[in-house]
């Protein structure tokens, strides 16, 4: 089950799946892909996004 912390903080519809460089903020790929069509800055801190990496939640031990 997906807990609320694992959901995208922008849409709350999808799990977090992308992490932004260099600031390490996170969202789902749908939100960041849509955002990057028109903007190059982070939703949260306004840093210029230089790349987006896949984010996978560390397995809980």
UniProtKB/TrEMBL annotation:
Coiled coil start-end: none
GO (cellular component) term, any one: cytoplasm
GO molecular function list: ligase activity; ubiquitin protein ligase activity; zinc ion binding
Sorted UniProt keywords: Ligase, Metal-binding, Transferase, Ubl conjugation pathway, Zinc, Zinc-finger
SUPFAM superfamilies (UniProt xref): RING/U-box
Top-level taxon of origin: Eukaryota
UniProt catalytic activity: S-ubiquitinyl-[E2 ubiquitin-conjugating enzyme]-L-cysteine + [acceptor protein]-L-lysine = [E2 ubiquitin-conjugating enzyme]-L-cysteine + N(6)-ubiquitinyl-[acceptor protein]-L-lysine
GO biological process: protein ubiquitination; proteolysis involved in protein catabolic process
InterPro entries from the UniProt entry: RNF123/RKP/RSPRY1, Znf_RING, Znf_RING/FYVE/PHD
Known EC number: 2.3.2.27
Domain RING-type: 8-46
UniProt enzyme class: transferase
PANTHER family referenced in this protein's UniProt entry, alphabetically: E3 UBIQUITIN-PROTEIN LIGASE RNF123, RING FINGER AND SRY DOMAIN-CONTAINING
Name of the molecule in the record: RING-type E3 ubiquitin transferase
Originating species: Alca torda
